[in-house]
Design goal:
13 helices, alpha+beta, five-stranded parallel beta sheet, 2 domains, seven-stranded antiparallel beta sheet, FAD/NAD(P)-binding domain, 22 strands
């Protein structure tokens, strides 16, 4: 049949890419995107502070999959079909030049997410893809060789359907897919920052320590990279990695736990002790606040000295064995109490969704319902910050759109 009808449920990054892919691979098909809200690509619009972190610069697939706490291993083969290099090429071929930042993140040269939105919208117009907003699918009914979608006062029939509704804040939000026989992994927040209402460190808001090591007390969870002190607690990659990889563990703790910070970024404590001892030997008469090790900024250094119980006007030679050991402890194992979380910027990312065991990852087709496909975060796939979540959307959307 040349006039097959394809429905895309969800007007986000994965939904648009799936629609464009469907039309590219099957030019004669009639493709329609159904978005329940009034606006499409809303998450693309606000991502990266309105700049849109399109993808990551990592082109090694074995390294790339490590950025995905859930879904990484099963994304290995999909990434061989469409990966970060393909994403960059795709947008640049559509007159959206991208720039690679020092942190490995790709952004449009325009530094505006609107460039990405315009490229996707232009492709839809060029390929005559229908986009319908305020169209919420109330029910999906599988038939022998087609799928029936029920809207408010309308029932439509499609040959194939791609679900790209994004992550659900609550597991119950995916009951409509569970009722079809799919197993749903519990949905909990993934990318979030740490609230520290009782910690003085908040007074240092705005300070960034470029390289630290973070851990969650009592677990094997570990993060690294820059740490940002905020007016509510801590953020930055070193914290966000913990939140992503520890999504379920931290949810079980009701977001009350202790985070340990190694401000030196040196995992071996004896090396830190040797470095501080060297400072003592070479600068005995200098005041503690006048010599800041490991690139620690002044306000943070004064804060750490206070936590170590050391007056900033004390000389290094006056530190003593007890003071020396306490300072090493604070530098390498500084403990802060976390009580609660805050969504990272305006980017809501969830852990959980449709179990990947129910999906043929080579085609993104459901193993439970024939002619039903999935793309994006509605599946149990999520990643750390850095363009990885968008890459999963582009990749799974591209493959789902092949409609094999």
């Amino acid at each position: 049949m040349s006039n097959k009808k394809i429905a895309i449920i969800g007007g986000g990054a994965a939904g648009f890419f799936a629609a464009i892919s469907a039309k590219y691979h099957n030019p004669s098909y009639e493709v329609t995107i159904f978005e329940k809200s009034q606006k499409v690509l809303a998450k693309v619009k606000v991502s990266g502070g309105g700049r849109c972190n399109v993808t990551n610069g990592c082109s090694d697939i074995d390294e790339l999959i490590k950025a995905y706490p859930r879904g990484g291993k099963k994304l290995k083969w999909p990434f061989k079909s469409f990966n970060t290099t393909d994403t960059v090429k795709w947008f640049e071929e559509r007159n959206v030049p991208l720039t690679l930042q020092d942190d490995g993140c790709y952004f449009p040269v325009s530094q505006s997410s609107q460039s990405i939105i315009d490229a996707l919208m232009n492709e839809c117009r060029r390929n005559k893809i229908n986009i319908l907003t305020s169209k919420s699918v109330e029910r999906l009914i599988p038939l022998d060789d087609s799928i029936q979608l029920s809207f408010n006062e309308e029932i439509l029939l499609f040959d194939k359907v791609i679900v790209a509704t994004g992550g659900s804040p609550k597991t119950s939000g995916l009951d409509w897919l569970k009722n079809l026989g799919h197993h749903i992994e519990e949905c909990v927040p993934s990318l979030f920052t740490f609230n520290m209402p009782n910690e003085k460190v908040k007074e240092l808001m705005g300070i960034v320590k470029e390289e630290v090591i973070t851990t969650i007390q009592g677990t094997k969870l570990k993060g690294d990279g820059p740490l940002l002190i905020t007016h509510w607690g801590m953020s930055g990659p070193a914290i966000l990695k913990l939140s992503a990889f520890g999504a379920r563990i931290l949810s079980e703790k009701n977001y009350e736990f202790s985070v340990l910070v190694n401000w030196t970024n040196e995992p071996k404590i004896d090396k830190v002790a040797a470095e501080i001892d060297k400072i003592v030997q070479l600068n005995p008469n200098k005041l503690l606040h006048n010599y800041k090790p490991y690139g620690i900024k002044e306000r943070l250094w004064l804060h750490l000295l206070e936590r170590a119980g050391q007056a900033s006007t004390k000389r290094w030679e006056e530190l003593g064995k007890k003071g020396f050991n306490k300072l090493i402890e604070i530098l390498t194992n500084d403990t802060y109490e976390v009580k609660g979380k805050t969504t990272f910027k305006e980017e809501f990312v969830t852990c959980g969704g449709v179990s990947l065991d129910d999906i043929n990852m080579a085609t993104m087709e459901s193993r439970v319902v024939k002619n039903l496909y999935f793309a994006g975060e509605v599946m149990d796939i999520d990643a750390i910050t850095g363009g990885y979540n968008f890459q999963a959307a582009w990749t799974t959307g591209f493959i789902a759109g092949q409609l094999k």
